Amino acid sequence: MKLHDVKVYPSRDRLARQDQLAWKIAGVAVDKVAVQKDVAEMIINRVIDNAAVAIAAINRRPVVSARDMALGHPRKDGATVFGVASGKRVSPEWAAWANGTAVRELDMHDTFLAADYSHPADNIPPILAVAQAMGRSGRDLVRGIATGYEIHIDLVRAICLHEHKIDHIAHLCPAQAAGIGALLGLKQEVIYQAVQQALHVSITTRQSRKGEISSWKAYAPAHAGKLAVEAVDRAMRGEGAPSPIYEGEDSVIAWILSGRTARDKGLAEAVYTVPLPEPGEPRRAILDSYTKEHSGEYQSQALIDLAFRMREQIPDLGMIEKIVLHTSHHTHYVIGSGANDPQKMDPKASRETLDHSIMYIFAVALQDGRWHHVDSYAPKRAARKDTVELWHRIETKEDPEWTRRYHSRDPNELAFGGRVEVFLKDGTRLVDELAVANAHPLGARPFGREDYIRKFRILTDGIISAREANRFIEVVQDLPRLGAGDLHLLNVALPAGTLDAGKPGIF
């Protein structure tokens, strides 16, 4: 990997294209380096994972609305929509919208955490949609997805958006554009313009994940995918974009990120150091990401597993006086009591809010010894009196050591869990800790191909036919060898008459 320093330059300096981050990102996208076998195998795993969580959410209201909107934009040679028979196609940007929403709705697909947050599998829906609409092969798709993951994760390693309350889709959209460019084999100039346009239009605030969290949490990455498809389309037609989008005098770094902070505080200019592969270096970033076994914010994964373990040490949960979760800055301030969101303690809160409340999640996991993507968030479950009482006895505290480990570059130190203290009414104190979830690559039970397939079968059971499930599992495992025009086979359809319809809109 080569490290690239990125900072603001006055307009009079006329920063050369080859020195701009967007041009360097485009350079990675045009590099024809082969996708290594273990990377291709992991891409297959994540395509399976995306399909699993999408079908599990297929008739939830946000997904229904997104699907109905997409179906208002039919295109004979377009892309498929999850749940809908593959013979019915839509324009690719709308397929990206519908499928991206379905994938994101349950908050149960993959994650990468570093300087910022990310769900890099959000790259897959728009890249797949364009691949289907443009008649590309499985090999082309694998190249595009590997590129999208690489750019997305490299940006997340280096640039913190959360510090400035900017939503994480600002890293996703440029990565999606780069992935689409790699898929289509576009020229560096075209991808460069698409990446800049994608970043420019995807700057939004983190209010989407604060306070009363709405369905937009699922829509936001899908919206980024739609914007990315449109950005590439414009660039392919010869249109340009604001430039240089990262380094310019009025750029994203200058006014949205740390450029402005440095100026306001009279500090030295802000510099971000972004790692990108050297020419000819394989794109392996996907192997640094990790999926979820449980439906909830990633920082909750290890703590759910820890709750399962600790409940065996507490014969009577009614004896709990209070619980303190000592954890990282991100966990404390995003899904913990440090967020100061009263909604995180509200039994009537939305599902989207509850899956960002580690206090609620830990209480239910401790009581039930299981986690279910539907049952654990049901309104009746959230309102149970003993759950509310336990939930309100839980708080989080930032621990500098867990924060340090959260940001560690050493994979053996990297941690997303915490240390839990349970105080009982008789004065007993129980303490346990877990650094990474059981499903993490360094966890007790790292996810492999059989786990992804099992997750798919569990989440789609009773929703699709066994025949459709078997067909998809067989086809997807042969992904790199699928021919041009065969990528519609990666769609998963429900039996006729089982897809819900939502309220009418404009489309």
Can you characterise this structure?
The structure is a single chain. The protein is of the alpha+beta class and 507 residues long. The chain folds into two domains: 17-244 and 276-288, 2-methylcitrate dehydratase PrpD (Orthogonal Bundle); 298-434, 2-methylcitrate dehydratase PrpD (60s Ribosomal Protein L30, Chain: A), CATH 3.30.1330. The protein has 20 helices and seven strands. A four-stranded mixed sheet has the order 5-4-6-7. A two-stranded antiparallel sheet has the order 1-3. α4 (92-104) runs antiparallel to α5 (124-133) and α7 (169-184) packs antiparallel against α8. The termini are far apart.
- Structural domain tally: 2
Largest sheet: 4 strands, mixed
CATH class group of the largest domain: Mainly Alpha
CATH homologous superfamily annotation of the largest domain:
2-methylcitrate dehydratase PrpD
Which CATH architecture of the largest domain would you pick?
Orthogonal Bundle
Distance between the termini: 45 Å
Task: Give the topology string: H per helix, E per strand.
Answer: EHHHEHHHHHHHHEHEHHHHHEHEEHH
Helix content: 40-55%
Uncertain stretches of 5 or more adjacent residues: none
Number of helices: 20
Structural class: alpha+beta
What integer value in Å does the Rg equal?
22 Å
CATH third-tier fold name of the largest domain: 2-methylcitrate dehydratase PrpD
GO molecular function, one term: lyase activity
Protein name: MmgE/PrpD family protein
Domain MmgE/PrpD N-terminal: 20-262
Family: Belongs to the PrpD family.
